[in-house]
Every structure is written in C-alpha cells, then in structure tokens.
Amino acid sequence: MIRDTSGQDVQLAPQSPWKNPRLLKQVGLGIVASAFVVWGLMSWQSTTAVDARLSLSRINIAAVERGDLVRDLVVQGKVVAANSPTLFSPAQGIVKFAVKAGDTVSAGQLLAQVDSPQLQNQLAQESALYSKLSVELARQKIQAKRQRLENTQKADLAKVDLAAARRELKRAKISLEKQIIPQLDFEKASDDMARAELEHAQAVQNAALENEALSFETQTLELQVSQQKLQMEELQRKVNELHIVSPVDGTIGSLATTQRAAVAANTPLLTVVDLTSFELEAAVPENYADDLGLTMAVEVTMGFEKLPGEITAIAPEVINNQVIARVRFTDGQPANLRQNLRLTARVLLESRENVMLVKRGGFLDQTGGRFAWKLNDQQQAVKVPITIGAWGLNQVEIVSGLEVGDQIITSAADELDKAQLVALKD
Fold this sequence. Notes:
Blueprint (H helix, E strand, L loop, with lengths): L20 H29 L2 E4 L5 E3 L1 E17 L4 E3 L4 E5 L6 E2 L4 E6 L1 H61 L5 H59 L1 E3 L4 E6 L6 E2 L4 E6 L4 E8 L11 E6 L2 E10 L7 E8 L12 E18 L2 H6 L3 E5 L4 E6 L1 E5 L3 E6 L6 E3 L11 E5 L1
Parallel strand pairs: 1-22
Antiparallel strand pairs: 2-21, 3-12, 3-16, 4-11, 5-7, 5-10, 6-9, 7-8, 9-11, 12-15, 13-14, 13-16, 14-15, 16-20, 17-18, 18-22, 19-20
Helix pairs in contact: 2-3
C-alpha cells in the first residue's frame, strides 16, 4: 500500500517579514547602494556643470569701485649735475693746464692755455693787412676830395666862360645894330655863346659823374676795410679763446689729456661740474616713451620726503630698451643731494576722474585684459568679457563688462586658462 505525503507537511504560524534579520540586511544594503548611486549621479552632474575648482585660499578677490585713476610710472634714476660743460681746444697747439682734477674753481677763472703759433701768426698778418687797407682808404678819401675840388673848379670856370660869352654876344648885338661890326663878327659871338653853354653843361655833368665814381671807389675800399676788420676780430676772438676760463662755479671733473700735450682743434680738454644745480636722470622703459612729454609732473622720493619735479628733457635715442629723461626739482634744490645718488621717481602720465576701477592682478596678464571671472551668488566664478582702459600703478580702469560692486578674481591660476565656470570652495 502506497503512503501519501500528508505526513510530511508541517503547518507553521505566519510571521512579519520585518522580523527576518536576513531580509532586513538585504534591504539595508540596497538602500545604501541606492544612496551611493544617487550621490555619484549628483557628483557627476556637479562636475560636469563647472570647468574647474579653486580654493578661496589660493586666489585674490577684489570689488569693482568708482573713483579717480592716476596713470603713473615708477622708475629709478640717479642724481646728476644739471650743468657740466666740457671745454674744448679752440685751435691746434700745446695745452698748459692751470688746474688739476678735483680743484674748486669759480666762473671766469683761468683753467688752461693753448699755445698756437700758427693762429698768432695769422692774426698778425690779418692785422697788418687791415692797417694797409685803412691807410689806402684814408688816401682814397684825400684823393677824392682833391678830385671833387678840381671838378668843381672846372665847372666854375665853364660858368665864367659862359657869362663872358653872354656879355660878348650882348655887345656884338648892340654893335651890329649900330653897324659898328660886320655880321660875321656877330655870328662868331653867337657861336662862342653856344660853345660856352655846351662846355658849362658838360662840365657840370662830368663833375657829377666824377663825384659819383669817387664815392663808389671810396665805398668799395670801406667795405674791404670792414671785411678785413671782421676777419681780424674773428682771429682775435680765437686767440682770446686760447685762454680757457671756467664758465661756471664748480669743480674740475676730469682732464681729458696730459700737461703740455699737443692737441688738435676741437679736442676735449676738461670738464667742469656745477655742484650747485642737480637734476634726476631717470631711465624709462621704451614702451612708455610715447607717453612722456615735457613739463610732465614727477614725484621724486628721497627717504621719507616727496619732492615735486617736472620733465625738462627727453633723449631722442633708445639705449638698452630705455629712454633717458631729465627731471628738474620745481620747489628749489633739496638739501643733502649729491651726484650719483639713487632715487625713485613716480611719473604722473595721466589722471582720470570718476571711472570704474579694480585692483591690478595677474588675471590681466593671463588674459591680456580681455576677460575676468566674476563671482555669482552660488559661490562660483563666471568668465565674462571686459574692456580695460588706462593702467595705473595699483589699479586699472574698467570700460565695459563689469559694474560697480561686482567681485572678480584678480589673481592668476592655471585652472582659469580654459575655464568658463569655476566652483569656489573654502
């Protein structure tokens, strides 16, 4: 007989699934796994929303504000003598110095003498020629007076002959009327009268022409004498310049040659340094050369003192990518200045009032001043295009792209190179 399976079944009482520890463990693991999945999705979405992340401790942030911008330039310079003339030899010769390097001299003091026999000889020759021409001029004036007297005498004699001819014609006319003389004698008297008038007119004209020629010859000699006098005075000036004197009160800077050396004309001999007047010689970078101008204001820092000045000269050439500018102190010579003293100068290139400003930083060099990263209310920085204007020492002008009160990242960072949106974290 086959037995059934009824004897194998066991009836169990129903239980709550939440009381099964194995099931609870599986549900807990599922919840944790779901949480990790959700967190990963959120992290992935956050990562794809921003291009980079930066710590606030690594960057500098500045706010855009409105104010006055002073466009300036800080350069280094050295104090130099404003007046340091170099004296040259006026002619070829032997130089004899009367001073040594470092001697203190006054204006007009003899510094050196150049012995030039050639120049002295030329002066003597020109002086002799001047004396000769002066004597010839005096002789010409005497000769002109004598010739004028002779011309006047000839004209006066012709006038007397004319008067005599007129009287003779008058007597001949009366005699002809009384038939005392023949007609032939009357006609001869008339011819004598006409000849006398002609001779008198010619004598007067010749006297005028002779006097004019004499004046011309005298004037020619006077011009020659004047020309020779100028040449003699020029040589005399050159001879006087052989005695070289100091143009200013100062100190002998250096001697360019030795005692009793043979020098050529226009050879530098020595330098006189005027220590009573100083200027600042500032080296300005080449890219600022076009912005410089005469009388431009400069602020010179000497210790804790600010000294006002102005640019008085700008060198036309560029040396070692720099342009040399001379700065004069406008409020008088400051005390304790000495040559070659190093000072800092602040050149005031431009001043703009009531413009948008932001602090200068590395972001300008990183983007060329075309973009900035502006902070939003979600602790993020958004890349925005900007337009900058004038550059100051500590600030830069913002023309467009930002508003007053906006905060931007002013420092540079590698993460910002290709980032459009940057997340900021503490």
